[in-house]
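hi!! sorry for the late reply, been swamped w classes. u asked for the two structures so here they r. pasted raw, havent cleaned anything up. first the sequence of the first protein and right below it the tokens
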Amino acid sequence: MSEQDQALRQIDRLIASDVLHGSESLCKLLRYLAHHALEHPGVPLKEYQIATEEFSRPADFDPAVDSMVRVQAGRLRVKLAEYYAAKGADDPVRIELPKGTYTLAFHHRQPGDSRPHASEPHANEPFHSAPPQTSHKWLMAVITLSVLLAAALAALYFTRHGELGQRLGRQSHRLGVSCLLEAFSLRARRTMDRL
């Protein structure tokens, strides 16, 4: 039996378990996440996509206003941990939903392996693991600083080259960025004077 077939069989086992019994929305979410992880390995899911495709939310769904997907994912994480702490402790496949992602991770137990301890949730190699999380804040900071640096350099260049620089200076006062541009300009002039 292939690893994908084992993963699908484990999904069916989870859905039939007492832990998820009676929770149609969690079963629906688990099935959706599993099919996506197996059919599109390594492709992360977005909250908006889950809400509109699986939970029939309208196209104007706003995750900042409606936390339904986050709440359901949190509940599913708790139920998965509950299942594997008891009845599913010896199952051949362990399924996790890592925090910060909507991509399931499948851990296959090899014959003869002892079951992973609670303190070692990743004792087995993952079949499909969640993609590493990137820091969007870091990326935005780099982009913002790059744009500010480019604007300051452009302002410095134009202020040194006549009429266009004077117009830019007048407009920068209206935009409220004159202090920033002047600081960069002063620093650049000092550097140029040293050369």
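now the second protein. again sequence first, tokens right under
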Amino acid sequence: MQIEHEKGSPQNPWRVYADGVFDLFHIGHARALKQAKEVEENVFLIVGVSGDEETHRIKGRTVLNEEQRTESVRHCRYADEVICPCPWVITLDFLEAHNIDFVVHGEDISYDENGIDVYKDIKEMGKYRTIKRTPGISTSDIIRNIVRDYDDFLRRNIKRGQTRQELNISFIKEKQIKVGSKIKEYKDKGMNFMKSWKNKKDELVTKFLDRFDKSRTIVTSFGKYFSSSEESDSGEAGEDNEIGNTKDNENGNTEKMN
């Protein structure tokens, strides 16, 4: 006799499904899958990765192909099973085939080719859960940063030995990048020299001031010494004068008495 375990127990976990393109797998993707894994206690997370043909047709070109995107997800510790290619629009048949209890997705709405919410039917069945996206990070943000710093990345890859043919740039563009690299190199050397000179200058000034303070201390000590010596000499001279005056007075009185 087969024992039926309660749904959500370790023996009968919730089967949760989350899908996406997962191009240039990043921390936002990882956090989304973590939320999906923790949406209930004891979850078996199934992750769908969209295939190249459908993704390129509906959403646009990806940087990584479907095999690379799938392997990126497969190496995420929150994913228990990965399906690729997964359907762009989830159907009841797909849920039943994989025994999926409910689907999770971010707050943004995903559309099919006709502009219809791909999770519309799932939401109506009450099998949809929303998770929050990580602000400030997305595949589009990463690509935007690469495009913004395009010349810097070209310079980096040319320096590493990649040819203009591999980078799909013209002969003129390659020369521009190489000349720009030389100019940047000389500029950096100049900046480093100025920085080094400034540090050396500060060091010399500090040493001079230290020596000046020591010299000033020595001069001050000598000054105090000579001042005290002069005062001592003046005191002794004053005592001698007083003794001389006393003797003169005594001699004068003797003469008067005589």
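hope this helps!! also noticed smth abt the second:
The domain at 14-140 is CATH 3.40.50.620 (Rossmann fold).
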